Amino acid sequence: xxxxxxxxxxxxxxxxxxxxxxxxxxxxxxxxxxxxxxxxxxxxxxxxxxxxxxxxxxxxxxxxxxxxxxxxxxxxxxxxxxxxxxxxxxxxxxxxxxxxxxxxxxxxxxxxxxxxxxxxxxxxxxxxxxxxxxxxxxxxxxxxxxxxxxxxxxxxxxxxxxxxxxxxxxxxxxxxxxxxxxxxxxxxxxxxxxxxxxxxxxxxxxxxxxxxxxxxxxxxxxxxxxxxxxxxxxxxxxxxxxxxxxxxxxxxxxxxxxxxxxxxxxxxxxxxxxxxxxxxxxxxxxxxxxxxxxxxxxxx
Length: 300
Description:
This protein is an alpha+beta fold.
């Protein structure tokens, strides 16, 4: 009896309309491919909260680092120096190699250790040259959860991924959508992201952030789709190419179905390193603040 009651309540819960995102018609082909996450920690779900509130301020950075090899030489030191110079608490990285023939090291691990034992999660998008290629999410806080959301290839060139980490303060995600004509295939992948987060994070009790290289400008179908379910925290800064930036491809968003945040500062950092020599993208930095309830009691 208890088992049947639990199943009924679970189905009823997931049938409730979400608060963060309107419904959209999805074709079956869009969801072809893997739907499960590679989870490293037991999933850390929401709480019933009691206690006082405190203001939390965090600095978030997103940076497509061009596999740390832009210009033909290793650029790890440049990226480490940049992250340290920004005062970042959370960093999302795109185009990360992992133990492949191009870079036979675990690049994200090397970066994290160089920063002083930061915590990290590599979200492989696909196999590449005998190893992996994908996104990295890093922070200077203890992790409660870390996993990868695979994004199907759809009509695009490559499958993609979302690297997810969670701390006591926020859920932080890094992604890199496919390239192609405006509206496809990155639009299909944006729809997939919206439906996934709607199913898993509507009503969550902490901010949910996603950042990365979305490979298209504001005003396209892809960014309009993201704007449907997320609040854009980053200003439309021209971030690509570093030789003469003329496109805004890199963004930071906050999910509308979870706790909102206030933007304190928004910038495309300058002067810390030679960005032209480090990557073909400029990074984007956003400082946020929000109210957090302390003295939490776990749900029984």
